Design the sequence.
């Protein structure tokens, strides 16, 4: 790569001393080397892709149901995407707080409490809207599921996912910090993937009960 | 911007972007359910199998790039300018390598799963589709993500509240769309 050891630093580097003052610190240039980022992430991304095959297999097995009820097909990316959004907001905020030294994973910590309340408020707003929208598009595509059912599916699976998002984010930041990995590289892939797989499993569990 | 925001502030900052991502997600769902996509799913064995992994790695690769840049901005080790800073270039190159490598890996494990499950499939076809879709995603995600983070940061938005929705929105809509393009391109070549 462009990052061979010993290669002189680029002259466009504005503050060449900041990494040298604190060689063991997280601001060292080493933390930003191509090799380091790729080596940290490739095994993780590979493992998570294998994990995603679980939801892929579930999707394949529900292919007929999905084609029969278009509202569910429409619901799928939104449901997963929104969980991923909430997860990455939570992880990203927790990680920044970790670096700034204001992180403490307790409900008594006002920062954590604000995160949790915001996640549940966002989830309630969004999954309610998702339910109505997926129903409408489903009807337009020739589906037959009633509004109450689509709304129930979206809200129940959505709120279950919000609980999972909060718990998984805190655990992931905590664990990757303790084992010495940069939480910016590890937590978002882990938590969003977990939410994707759990999202498909929870969605189809709820679908199985409601439909 | 100091990490001490109230629930109301987080909600207010995140909601508009989350709502935009919701609309985009519905759009992705509609592409997914379209006639063209369904015939693609039928003609290429393994598309439904690789879909979650492909969409998820968009989030993994580019979401962590976003979080890294966000922390870098907060720490002051990178500047919100488009100059070719060493750290910024490294982060971008690494994300591109990660994105392409994982796309090919997904094609291979999808093929292996098809074989194990006793189905049929073409390794070459799956790798080709993933290369096209992975490259197009990388080009789009990298340029948009960096623009949004820097412009947002300069205007006083906390990138932590914005990156996730931007990544998943673009990742889902264009992921499904580029997958369709990949299926089309490989179908034309073979």
Sequence:
């Amino acid at each position: 790569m462009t990052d061979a050891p010993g290669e002189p630093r680029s002259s466009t580097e504005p503050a060449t001393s900041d990494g040298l003052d604190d060689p063991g610190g997280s601001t060292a240039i080493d933390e930003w080397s191509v090799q380091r980022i790729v080596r940290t992430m490739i095994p993780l991304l590979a493992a998570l892709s294998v994990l995603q095959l679980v939801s892929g297999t579930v999707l394949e097995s529900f292919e007929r149901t999905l084609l029969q009820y278009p509202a569910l097909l429409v619901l799928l990316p939104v449901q997963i995407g929104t969980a991923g959004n909430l997860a990455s907001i939570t992880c990203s905020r927790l990680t920044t707080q970790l670096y700034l030294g204001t992180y403490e994973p307790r409900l008594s910590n006002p920062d954590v409490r604000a995160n949790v309340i915001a996640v549940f408020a966002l989830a309630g707003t969004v999954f309610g809207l998702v339910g109505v929208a997926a129903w409408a598009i489903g009807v337009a595509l020739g589906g037959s599921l009633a509004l109450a059912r689509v709304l129930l599916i979206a809200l129940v699976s959505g709120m279950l996912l919000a609980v999972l998002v909060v718990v998984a984010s805190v655990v992931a930041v905590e664990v990757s910090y303790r084992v010495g990995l940069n939480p910016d590289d590890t937590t978002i892939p882990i938590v969003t993937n977990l939410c994707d797989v759990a999202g498909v499993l929870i969605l189809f569990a709820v679908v199985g009960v409601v439909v | 911007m100091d990490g001490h925001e109230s629930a109301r502030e987080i909600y207010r900052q995140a909601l508009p972007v989350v709502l935009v991502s919701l609309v985009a997600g519905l759009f992705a769902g509609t592409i997914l359910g379209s006639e063209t996509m369904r015939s693609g799913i039928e003609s290429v064995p393994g598309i439904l199998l690789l879909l979650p992994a492909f969409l998820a790695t968009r989030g993994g690769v580019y979401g962590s790039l976003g979080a890294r840049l966000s922390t870098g901005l907060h720490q002051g080790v990178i500047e919100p300018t488009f100059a070719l800073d060493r750290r910024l270039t490294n982060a971008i190159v690494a994300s591109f390598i990660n994105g392409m490598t994982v796309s090919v890996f997904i094609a291979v494990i999808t093929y292996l799963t098809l074989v194990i499950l006793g189905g049929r499939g073409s390794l070459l076809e799956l790798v080709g589709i993933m290369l096209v879709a992975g490259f197009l995603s990388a080009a789009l995600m990298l340029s948009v993500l960096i623009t949004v983070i820097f412009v947002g940061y300069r205007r006083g938005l906390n990138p932590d509240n914005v990156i996730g929705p931007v990544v998943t929105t673009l990742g889902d809509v264009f992921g499904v769309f580029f997958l369709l393009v990949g299926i089309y391109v490989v179908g034309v070549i073979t």
About this structure: Confidence is low (pLDDT under 50) at residues 1-27 of chain A. Chain A touches chain B through 90 residues (CB under 8 Å). Chain A has one domain: 41-210.
